[in-house]
Design brief:
Length: 334
């Protein structure tokens, strides 16, 4: 890791470095849906990991490890800035909401196909149904304001009813799931769960931020309602994780999540700036992973966290195809 911006001493250099974190946004009209989803999810994983390093820093007694978390967190700040700067700032709140719902839905359909653990698969399918309804309501709301959701989704996603809103509120007891065991569970289960958590956290946090600056009361109420459900989903996902996992292990899983997401983003990117942003952040995240693995070697074998081809496995079905297949299964079961 070369000198970080705070270590450059010369303010001109610092300013130059930080200026480079703001790229030119890519027009929403010109963005392909998959490209937009990967950009949003790429941003979500960066923000999730940045936030995690701060939490881990505060929970760590080892001074050297604290220093490592601090230094990497500053690079994550750079990644958050770079990826966020490409997202079109001309998007309205409801358009951003639709793009984030599209990101969430895509994430669930991918994780449900790639996930080896049945209870996690069930949890992803469960949450997918809530999001289909949320997306339908966002789409109707957009239309009432003269915006077509298809302008964002470009028809990559069929708008349909999933689970009605009134059934999305379940008691606390029902939210808590059997946690994974970090010693026996497949590491990919953790990578999938962290990715979904990152998407969900971004959706909730953005809705919280949007509603604060929104003058329209009805849209505020809709965002309140969805953010409330997102809190339930986040708790459900957090209950699946192993509470015995160490901050170092958690951070390595997050780095694997970042690397996978940016690799995917490089594949889907049509615009060269989007591709190079994913590539740049991915290369630095690969360095982060190896630094963490080195630090971990004094605690135990780190080979479970190594980068392998399994990380880059692709789901068989597209989002629409998976949703149709899943809906058929539900209807057959009734
Ligand atoms: Fe990163
Ligand atoms: Fe990273």
């Amino acid at each position: 890791m070369s000198k970080l911006f705070n270590e450059m001493e010369d303010f001109d250099k610092i300013e130059k470095k930080i200026s480079g974190w703001t790229l030119r946004p890519v027009d929403k009209e010109k963005t392909d849906p998959l490209e937009m989803v990967d950009l949003n999810s790429g941003y979500a994983v960066e923000q999730y990991q940045w936030d995690y390093y701060h939490q881990a820093f505060a929970l760590t007694q080892d001074r050297e490890l604290q220093k490592l978390f601090a230094r990497i967190s500053l690079e994550e700040e750079e990644h958050v800035s770079i990826l966020g700067s490409i997202i079109d700032p001309k998007m309205t709140y409801i358009e951003s909401g639709i793009a984030l719902q599209m990101t969430a839905i895509q994430g669930f359909t991918e994780a449900a196909q790639l996930e080896p653990d049945e209870s996690l698969r069930n949890a992803y399918n469960y949450m997918l149904l809530d999001h289909l309804t949320q997306m339908r309501i966002f789409s109707d709301t957009a239309l009432s304001q003269g915006t077509r959701s298809q302008d964002i989704t470009k028809d990559s996603l069929r708008i349909m009813e999933g689970r009605p809103f009134e059934k999305q509120f379940i008691p606390t007891e029902a939210l808590l799931k059997q946690p994974l065991d970090k010693d026996t569970a497949d590491i990919m289960s953790f990578v999938n769960a962290h990715t979904i958590l990152a998407n969900e956290t971004q959706l909730r946090n953005d809705l919280q931020m949007f509603r604060k600056t929104l003058p329209a009361q009805d849209l505020r109420r809709l965002f309140n309602m969805v953010a409330a459900v997102e809190n339930l989903h986040i708790l459900m996902l957090e209950s699946l994780l192993d509470p015995a996992i160490s901050p170092l292990e958690y951070a390595m899983i997050n780095e694997l999540m970042e690397i996978r997401k940016h690799n995917q983003g490089m594949q889907s990117a049509k615009h060269k700036d989007i591709r190079s942003a994913h590539e740049y952040t991915m290369k630095e995240d690969e360095v982060h992973l190896s630094l963490l693995m080195d630090a971990y070697s004094s605690y135990g074998p780190s080979d479970r966290f190594e980068l392998t081809d399994r990380l880059f496995a692709q789901p068989e079905m597209s989002t629409n195809k998976y949703i149709n297949h899943f809906m058929d299964q539900i209807h057959q079961a009734i």
